[in-house]
Amino acid sequence: MLSKFPYLRQDFLASIVVFLVAVPLCVGVAVASGVPAEVGLVTGIVGGIVTGLMPGSSLQVSGPAAGLTVLVFEAVSEFGVGTLGVIVLIAGLLQLAMGFVGIGRWFRAISVSVVEGMLCGIGLVIIAGQLYAAAGLKAPETGIGKIVGLPGAFADALGSTRALVSLAIGAGTIAVIVLWKKIPKGAQAVPGALAAVILTTAASLAFSLPVTTVQVEGLLGVIQPPGAEAFGELLSPAIWGTIIAFALIASAESLFSAAAVDRLHDGPRTEYDKEMIAQGTGNTVCGLLGALPMTAVIVRSSANVGAGAKTKASRVMHGVWLLLFAALLPAALALIPLPTLAGILVHAGWKLVPFRAVVTLWRGHRGEALILVVTAVSIVVVNMFEGVLIGLALSVVKTAWEASQVKLEVIDKGAGPIQVYLSGNATFLRLPKILDTLESLPQNRPVELDLTGLHHVDHACHTALKNWSERHSTPGTPPVKLTETPVATH
Fold it and tell me: How many C-alpha atoms does 433 have within 13 Å on its Cβ side?
């Protein structure tokens, strides 16, 4: 047996660690997304057993991610829980298509600043929203509304004993998770989030604290394949923006997680297109079961590597343990206080905010730091999908601006023609500056415009230069002499 599976012991122990990390996160993400707790466990099970068996990235672990919580909550609020399965199903099929046509590896070309900004914006919205949940209050629907409404929410909480007790449990949860890393290494075999769940649940039961706990429906009760009515929603154009957002954001988060996990171990490297197919397969199955969307999750993946996993067997076994837990011990979920889960997600949201990355980028690449901040703010103020699109647009504009470096040199010897040399890359982004210089030249002097030094000139720029050369000279003055190479014009 051991000869066939030489790493069985290491993978078994790692699977236990990943399972213990996954349970509170699966439940917390589900509750924060506005769906039953067991739905998160279903996604964790599919991520472990289905996606875990497939090729791609051998050590990263998939499941419901905090990074999609905001988007899922918006989708459930707008379209209903019954339609969530259809959204996830079609998003999974899109991921499969992208994987089969080889788009997976292209996700590595997305600006890291946009991804960091996306996670930062998501983190801020999660923190703000879960602070309301920690106090047992209803959160506003918009991201900016959640943040602006916090002072009023705290004022309301101060006048309610029940809200203060709930807040205390949430704060205690965060304190346990943060301080857990300070205790002896042996005790840290139990993950901090799970320790926080056990301790706060025990305290709630021991002192009969007036807090709301998780609602349990049973594993089979929450598996609801989408019906004909849900598929009918696909006729609405509004739902397609959400589907595309699910597919793109889940793919980007998974593949960036894969790149990060590859840096943590010396085993086989990720095959990005195969990993995209694995993620698409998992989300297709999740959609058919009416579960949450999945991504690769860096918290579980790093725990898997850190626990000594050697093969994909560890993540498959973690899925089996989740299945056994959900099937045999569902009543245990009903004991968990909701503010405990809120505290776990506040901590998870805090870890999504890249404080060090912002400082580092500001020191060396302020343009990238600006993209990160604008993406994050856009997600908070507008919504997830449009915020990411704004970040991507800014990234493209910045790249185009940096690529369009053009040098304009004017030589005027006082007599004879004025010589103008353009070199580099002339694009519409530099056109105003180029035209300002050219239009300042005297119209009663001959001008020689030399474009042979240009590596690239776009259509807008080429047309503008031709038009200027045709209309520049006054009657009686020789027309502008334009010298260019056919290769330079596009």
Answer: 13
